[in-house]
Amino acid sequence: MLEIFICEDDKKQKERITKYIKDYIMIEELDMRVALSTDNPDEIIEYVQSNNINGLYFLDVDLKHEKSGIVLGAEIRKYDSRGSIVFVTTHSELTYLTFLYKVEALDYIIKDDFTDIQKRVIDCIKTANERYMSNQNETKKRFQIKSGDKVISEEYSNILFFETSPKLHKIVMHTDQRQVEFYGKLKEIEELDDCFYRCHNSFVVNIENIANIDKKTREITMENGEVCFASSRYMKELNNLLK
């Protein structure tokens, strides 16, 4: 999932940009979300430090804070080297600072041109999404399925386990950040990759994200604390895989 961040100290401008983004995501049914919309750059830094993400950032250059938008962009680069950064400013003459701070920008949006802002924001979302999907497909294995009218794409490394849903013929995918329900069969999933193991009639677990197994209760605790279960017939082989 591509995560989007807005840092803008003008409340109306922040709300306007956030609405443009959320409306476009909803209309196009994109697999992305607004993670943070704030006037505090420290909140964004704290988030990117704590989460392994590839984001799209809309940053006001002239923040009423000790950090300017360009300094914030430089700090983001330390943690998200492939993220797409867009500067929103009334001071086009300050864009040279992005070269001084070595911050590669996807675009510069001038606030004064109100009629153009929405289109430019949408264009940036399209471009960032294309880059994100291209980068992910080149470097990491991904699980892709259709859920409703959305195409959901998730890295194998983020998937914890799959379980059968109470709804007929449906499966729930548990990742480190979300749950997604879709039509499918566990048998097909366990055959996708060696990291997926059928540990129970109702569960397929990603063995690379297992933190602990309680042999008495047959509870499997994942890296994020979530729990799924193994049946006795699968326990021996599961323990062998983890040795």
UniProtKB/TrEMBL annotation:
GO terms for molecular function: DNA binding; phosphorelay response regulator activity. The modification 4-aspartylphosphate is found at residue 60. Residues 3-126 form the Response regulatory domain. The keyword Lipid biosynthesis does not apply. It comes from the Bacteria. The keyword Phosphoprotein applies. PROSITE patterns: HTH_LYTTR (PS50930), RESPONSE_REGULATORY (PS50110). Residues 143-243 form the HTH LytTR-type domain. This is DNA-binding response regulator. It comes from Oceanobacillus piezotolerans.
